[in-house]
Design brief:
35 strands; 20% helix; Crtac1; Immunoglobulin-like; 781 residues; Serine Threonine Protein Phosphatase 5, Tetratricopeptide repeat; alpha+beta; 3 domains; ASPIC/UnbV domain-containing protein
């Protein structure tokens, strides 16, 4: 096992041991006797006992007070086991080998089980240290999806230390409840998936038929809440458990009953969106773990396909080809993706201007540097050209973005690394890869001034100051975010603090967009810091300190941006992962979908949909649209896959642990009776996919005035993948006064005055007129 641990992994594991001891209410002596072997050092920390004789009288008296914190508090124990299991990853001798990357992860949970069981066998009967080991062991069984065994280990941990406090034992009851509740989820809404499964609030068709898991969860949560009645997080899970049995609210004890609050707010004017993913073949491979979702035409046949990387070590990335008959077919193997494993996020662009959309796959996020994959596309068949392109240096990354920052007609690439200033690894500095035009890239981040040197989690390109050069936003975990203004000479200047867009400090996915249709790019930044209790408090309208997203309105000039989050109704405690935006109801204003959760199984909450009301405010339409899926939402894309003129919603679902697999989701938009226009751009001097180009549509309003709709060519969020075409809602307008395109590299504008509506048009840079694409609706089953 020695080779399986690096110094960083050791520190992480030791931190986990201390956390376990904290949750069990035990103090841990932070002394390291430094035995010869690394596992021995780990075990020395595990078995450390509180110092006794030297403790002052005040400290001895304090021990009589039960100070064990709630298990899902700010010092939360990761019940998914992911944080424990990753420390048992194997070595990677050859960084270029994806097979070694796969092998390092395959079986790491079982390696952890074997290691901890061996340590348990070495303990003498009655050794209270066994409780801490069993808590870790139970978490790794949770990682593996072995719920009964995890529950047994947590139960044994309750009796292994006779001096454990009642609150410490109660924490283990909460963990046993989470294991049982997840077992019920898997046996019902995952293994026996139907269109209503996991959609909150649960309909009759989603009620669990196999009730044992939820029944057991209720028993454990109730016992826990007798000692911790103020824990709203566990109280929420108890209410969800009753809901899965169809017994909410009647059977919930009155003192533990929670209203559903904002989770069930309804609104008029929006129809429910059924989940048709299984019906159309999106789940042919079964359930999946966390990953990305890119929707675009990857084989050049004019239909939108779905590209989905995954962190599941047992499979490669997936390409689901749109057959044009209302179904998708799995062509992953013939597309060359079988060996493209363990990627949490990806982004697409046509980097070589050959009319085929290429894909960059990212690896190592939350873990350790691993190699990326640059996949060159040739009509739906992908070739891994990473090493030849000069992108082979490993990096721990979950976020990247394409843009032509120097306006030479070739898209360049920024990759955000998870650089920890406390444990600096130069491989994790941010990288700006300049596209040389010969198939290769050169990292110019140092000269450009964009290394970030922070823990990057989101990347967004956008020309916020309209000077013709894309600017770069990088969201960071634990430190202020960056807004790198493009100086136009190959260098950038961080103006985030000056323009007041450096928060939230713990950030995640982000994007530039024009939410109010004033022609200026605004900025959305997702947070990444809140407990389950804080989320539930916010949903119930209670005061909470949990982090909120930030919506920064671009006001232009020296002022730059203004935080309008509260003003527009987005002052909500949320925990987004995957997310994206699109015009759900074709009113011309961009709406938002947030895939929520954390790796821990206990973070069970519905994903969220927010409708944009005229660029003035947002309202929660999750319940009205039926899009509140309870499984963790990662890659998100809005796309009109069936070419009927409205945007449907794709969600890559599933968590970071093998036990947290889920089925992917396709919410079908039933339409809202409004007009639309889809625009596809082809660059000639500008990069061929026209990334960064601007589209403006002028429409007549009811009072005779002209209103405009503004769009940029972008894939949207840094954890999502919209098509590089624009479907623009026209509302009730029956004519278009003008359609205008502003091209990036040539700085030219083309205006069209006879554009039809309710169709798709193709516009080529520098060519007169437009081409109406002969692409009728695709029937669905």
């Amino acid at each position: 096992m020695k080779a399986a641990f690096g110094s960083i992994a050791l520190r992480l594991l030791l931190a986990g041991i201390v956390l376990v001891a904290t949750c069990l209410g035990a103090a841990v002596a932070l002394t390291d006797p430094a035995p010869a072997t690394l596992p021995g050092r780990v075990w020395a920390w595990m078995s450390a006992r509180p110092a006794r004789a030297s403790a002052p009288p005040q400290a001895r008296a304090a021990r009589a007070v039960d100070t064990a914190p709630p298990v899902f508090s700010d010092v939360a124990f990761d019940d998914s086991g992911y944080a424990s299991a990753i420390r048992f990853s194997g070595p990677i001798a050859d960084p270029s080998s994806l097979q070694q990357v796969r092998e390092s992860v395959m079986g790491r949970g079982r390696r952890g089980v074997a290691y901890l069981e061996a340590k348990l066998a070495e303990l003498k009967p009655g050794d209270p240290s066994a409780a801490r080991v069993r808590m870790l062991l139970g978490s790794i069984w949770m990682y593996e999806g072995e719920w009964d065994e995890a529950g047994r280990q947590f139960a044994r941990a309750q009796t292994d230390d006779p001096k454990a406090s009642p609150l410490a034992r109660a924490n283990l009851d909460a963990l046993r409840g989470v294991a049982a509740l997840r077992r019920g989820e898997v046996e019902n809404c995952v293994s026996c998936c139907n269109e209503a499964s996991c959609i909150f609030p649960l309909a009759a068709a989603a009620i669990h038929r196999r009730v044992e898991g939820s029944r057991e969860a209720i028993e454990h949560f109730t016992r826990y809440l007798k000692l911790r009645p103020d824990d709203l997080g566990v109280q929420w899970l108890l209410n969800v458990a009753y809901m899965t049995l169809g017994e909410y609210p009647d059977a919930v004890p009155r003192d533990l009953l929670l209203p559903l609050g904002r989770f069930v707010e309804t609104t008029d004017g929006l129809a429910r969106m059924p989940n048709i993913a299984s019906r159309v073949g999106l789940n042919a491979q079964g359930s999946s773990m966390a990953g990305a979702c890119l929707v675009d035409d990857f084989d050049g046949d004019g239909r939108l396909d779905v590209f989905m990387p995954t962190t599941d070590p047992e499979r490669g990335a997936s390409l689901l080809r749109n057959k044009g008959d209302g179904t998708f077919e799995d062509v992953s193997d013939s597309a060359g993706l079988a060996h493209q494993v363990l990627s949490l996020n990806a982004c697409h662009a046509d980097y070589d201007n050959n009319a085929d959309l290429d894909v960059l796959m990212l690896r190592g996020g939350w873990e350790t540097p691993r190699r990326m994959s640059l996949l060159r596309n040739k009509r739906g068949v992908f070739e891994d050209v990473t090493l030849a392109a000069g992108l082979g240096e490993p990096i721990a990354s979950q976020a990247a973005g394409w843009a032509d920052y120097d306006n030479d007609g070739l898209v360049d690439l920024y990759v955000a690394g998870e650089f920890d200033p406390g444990r600096p690894d130069p491989r994790n500095r941010g990288r700006l890869y300049h596209n040389k035009g010969d198939g290769g890239f050169e990292n110019v981040a140092v000269a450009a001034g964009v290394t970030n040197d922070r823990f990057g989690k989101g990347v967004a390109w956008g020309d916020y100051d309209d000077d013709g050069f894309p600017d770069l936003y990088v969201s960071n975990l634990g430190q202020p975010n960056r807004l790198y203004r493009n100086n136009g000479d190959g260098t950038f200047l961080d103006v985030a603090s000056a323009l007041r867009v450096a928060e939230p400090i713990d950030s995640f996915a982000c994007w530039f967009w024009d939410f109010d249709n004033d022609g200026r790019l605004d900025l959305w930044v997702n947070p990444n810091r809140a407990t389950l209790t804080e989320v539930i408090k916010d949903q119930l309208g209670m005061p909470t300190t949990g982090e909120r997203p930030r919506l920064y309105r671009n006001v232009g000039g020296a002022e730059g941006f203004r935080d309008v989050t509260a003003e527009v109704g987005l002052d909500r405690v949320v925990l987004p992962m995957g997310s994206n935006f699109g015009d759900l109801d074709n009113d011309g204003f961009l709406d938002v979908y947030l895939g929520t959760g954390r790796p821990s199984y206990s973070y069970l909450m519905p994903n969220l949909m927010f409708r944009n009301i005229g660029g003035r405010r947002f309202e929660d339409v999750t319940a009205a649209t039926g899009t509140g899926h309870l499984q963790k939402g990662h890659g998100v894309a809005f796309a009109d896959w069936d070419r009927d003129g409205d945007l449907d919603l794709f969600v890559e679902a599933g968590g970071a642990a093998p036990g947290d697999r889920a089925h992917n989701v396709l919410f079908q938009n039933p339409g809202h009776g409004r007009h639309w226009l889809t625009v596809k751009l082809i660059g000639t001097k500008t990069n061929r996919a026209a990334l960064g180009a601007k589209i403006r549509v002028d429409l007549p309003s009811a009072d005779g005035a002209i209103v405009s709709r503004h769009r940029r060519i972008t894939a949207g969020s840094s954890f999502g993948g919209n098509p590089l075409t624009c479907t623009i809602g026209l509302g009730a307008a029956e004519t278009i006064k003008m359609l205008e395109v502003t091209w990036l590299t040539s700085s030219t504008r083309q205006a069209f005055h006879n554009t039809p509506i309710d169709c798709a048009v193709e516009i080529t840079e520098g060519r007169e007129g437009f081409h109406i694409l002969d692409a009728g609706p695709i029937g669905s089953r």
